[in-house]
Amino acid sequence: MYPAELVKPMREHLTQVGFEELHNAEAVDTAIEKSGTTLVVVNSVCGCAAANARPGAIMSLENDKRPTQTVTVFAGVDKEAVAKARDHMVPFPPSSPCMALFKDGELVHMLERHHIEGRPAELIAENLMNAYNEHC
């Protein structure tokens, strides 16, 4: 577990733009199973989350079509919530950061860490926008 004071600014990077934090399994199930589309960001303390994942997720919301809701769980902190989110992301192996788009509870798009690491935030945003244009 990471100290709360360490992850606070990393959490706020997403919550300040409207992402809802989920801290337990029930909240994850409720969010993903809602009708419409849900973007789930598994946040992390790593450098690629700071430089690529969070900025890419935020930029992606500057699209005409967007998810109905945006939520986040934090790897290494929200253990129960992250485990439940990853259950919904099967068959993809656990990775953080990662992002998944769900439509009416069904996984329709996935960005794993290897799609994020070393790629500019703009490319990640473009990937997500393409998914929004198709599914939202």
Notable traits:
globular; 6 helices; 5-stranded mixed sheet; 47% helix; alpha/beta; Glutaredoxin; 5 strands; 136 residues
Question: What would your notes on this structure say?
Answer:
The protein is of the alpha/beta class and 136 residues long. The chain has a single domain, classed as Glutaredoxin (3-Layer(aba) Sandwich), CATH 3.40.30. 47% of the residues lie in helices and 20% in strands. It is built from six helices and five strands. The protein has helices at residues 4-15, 25-33, 47-60, 79-88, 113-116, 121-135; strands at residues 20-21, 37-43, 69-74, 98-103, 106-111. The protein has a five-stranded mixed β-sheet with strand order 1-3-2-4-5, with helices on both faces. A hairpin with a 2-residue loop joins strand 4 and strand 5. Helix 3 (47-60) crosses helix 6. The longest helix has 15 residues, at 121-135. The model has no long low-confidence stretch (mean pLDDT 96).
